[in-house]
Amino acid sequence: MQFSKSVIEVIKERTSWRTFLNKAMGNNLRNDLEQILELNDIDSPFKTQGGNPRFQLISIPDFNPEENVKIGTYGFIKGAQEFIAGATNIAEYNLENYGYIFEAIILAATDLNLGTCWLGGTFNRSQFSDFIQLKSDERIPAVSPVGYPTSRRLKEKFIRSISKAKLRKPWELVFFNGDFNSQIEQDEIGKYKTILEMVRIGPSAGNKQPWRILKEKEQNIFHFFVKFSDDKKLSSYNQFVRLDIGIAVCHFDLTAKELGIKGKWEFKEPNIERPKELKYTISWKGQ
Q1: For residues 278 and 125, which has the higher predicted lDDT (pLDDT)?
Q2: Average pLDDT of span 125-151
Q3: Whole-model pTM over 0.85
Q4: Residues facing 264 on adjacent strands
Q5: 26 and 155, same structural domain?
Q6: Which of 151, 168, 268, 281 has a CA positioned 20 to 30 A from the CA of residue 46?
Q7: What is the C-alpha separation between 111 and 267, in angstroms, rounded?
Q8: Final residue of a structural domain among 127, 160, 193
Q9: What CATH number corresponds to the domain at position 51?
Q10: 147-152-157 Cα angle (round to 5)
């Protein structure tokens, strides 16, 4: 996938926007985005077992841009004229694949200087289903407004503060070396430090960052796990963790490619003790 600048910079620039200019995208910009949605340049490691996702750019004239429209999981989207919506059918890794591809789309939109915001919760699924003509074997895991961002309103700043939008878990809680009791020493992994940092700062539902990455000792093999919560107060986020691990894999994959670090993705679960709430997803083996 091609970006106009470093994907590392794009990942750092990406942020969630809920307030947009009341202005439709220009034709050239819209055409660029629609070309991205054709998915010709997005190569997900989950694609062979990830179903057949499809994405569409939607103008929503029924949503009055002068009014607050409750479309998101913990706030309002204001002024958005277009949305990116997608659908996927049932497959073993359909949500992981969707998460990877949708995050790649989000990053591409960021590269076009557009604002976006992952919405995976209480958006109006029935209305989006009508817009994209959802099939009986499909579901809509997430959507995003897309457009020209404007300055954050006081309410949006408050929403970001209570959702801890800028906070991320420290390294020692998400990256491990050899076993889940030993953390990765950042100064000993070379360029992989940048790759893992791009994973660490990735977005996730409720900013829970459910991914856990285990590096094999003395080998550039990284195993991706996802954490499901058994806390009743947090259990509602479990429906999103498979999307979130797709985001983490996307950031790892795109950054490794940019840095010229070669490797391959494989589904090969390691024989290692791990907390019961962790589920294995995929591995990356450096060459």
Answers
A1: 278
A2: 91
A3: yes
A4: 285
A5: yes
A6: 168
A7: 31
A8: 160
A9: 3.40.109.10
A10: 130
pLDDT in tens, 63-120: 545 544 555 444 578 888 899 999 999 999 999 999 999 999 999 999 999 999 999 8
- Angle ∠(41,137,141) on CA atoms, nearest 5: 55
Spatial CA neighbour of 104 closest among 193, 44, 146: 44
The token duo for 6 is: 């470093």
| Distance (Å) of CA 258 to CA 96, 100, 164, 192 | 22, 16, 29, 12
Task: Note the pLDDT tens digit of each residue in 156-210.
Answer: 444 444 444 457 799 999 999 999 999 999 988 999 999 999 999 999 998 899 9
Q: Domain total for the chain?
A: 2
For 242, counting Cβ atoms within 10 Å of its Cβ (0-12 exposed, 13-18 middle, 19+ buried), the class is buried
